[in-house]
Please model this.
Amino acid sequence: MKKISILVPESSVMQAIADPQYLFTAVNQFFLAAGKSPLFDVELVGVKKEVQLNNGSYSVHTDRQIKDVKKTDIVFIPALFGDMTSAIKKNEALIPWIVQQYSRGAEVASLCVGAFLLASTGLLNGKKCSTHWGFQNEFREMYPDIELVDGSIVTEEQGIYSSGGANSYWNLLLYLVEKYTNRETAILASKYFAIDIDRHSQAAFAMFKGQKDHNDKEILKAQSYIEKNIHEKISIDDLAKISATGRRTFERRFKQATNNSVLEYIQRVKVEAAKRQFETSRKNINEVMYEVGYTDTKAFRDLFKKLTGLTPIEYRNKYNKMAVK
Model:
């Protein structure tokens, strides 16, 4: 029987604790109903016997404390809530235990922004990781030695797993169910919980807000110009002139300030504007394409799909009830 340890950290999201417990317990029930033995021993594990969550609104009783768990097969790190630095500090006692379990052969999986606590262990250094799209910039700043995979739902490397944002962690849970059982059981679980088993990207849900939490006034000026002139073909040379810097210096400073190249930033701003149009208007694909400064239908379609995971038509039909199908 495979032992599953679901951590109950301070400042964690209760649903991200309950969902893996529910899923793997349900899989056990599937096996019992088929006349087979259950496969998973599922436990809630924490530093204390009782952990208060959401300012005391919820109380979670752990099955065992970490000091009593000498060996497990997989450790789940649920999503954290609030300020990430503060949440990690509150859970420092969990870090050496996670490292110890991994060294003893356990696999480790973080759900959503649980990736921050996983990253604080050092186990992800030099490896790939996924987290909620809305926390990617903060994650990169805190953990520059980790390769963050944009838009990914599930990332796996050397027995360490991470998932994208919010409900994306269900896809990681199903991925692990399939790994530990079989495809048939994973499909049964996906139907039982009404989850799309083969969703691979969170790109369609991401909202690009522009990285402006920096102090480079000239780059902010260029960013503002890009956002106000999405209908134009914007050149890097023009932006460098606006910022009163040479092209090479401008490109270097822009990348340093925004974590995007100039071209990437322009593309993302234009696609974000197109997304808003597809969500709220009845305009057709070509009308929206021209409004954000593109004239080549194939180039626009390819870029849109690259950044969102969906074609313009697929995106419009998914998010706009007014859209003509």
The longest helix spans residues 14-33. Residues 2-205 form a domain with the Rossmann fold fold (CATH 3.40.50.880). The radius of gyration is 23 Å. The chain has two domains: 2-205, 217-319.
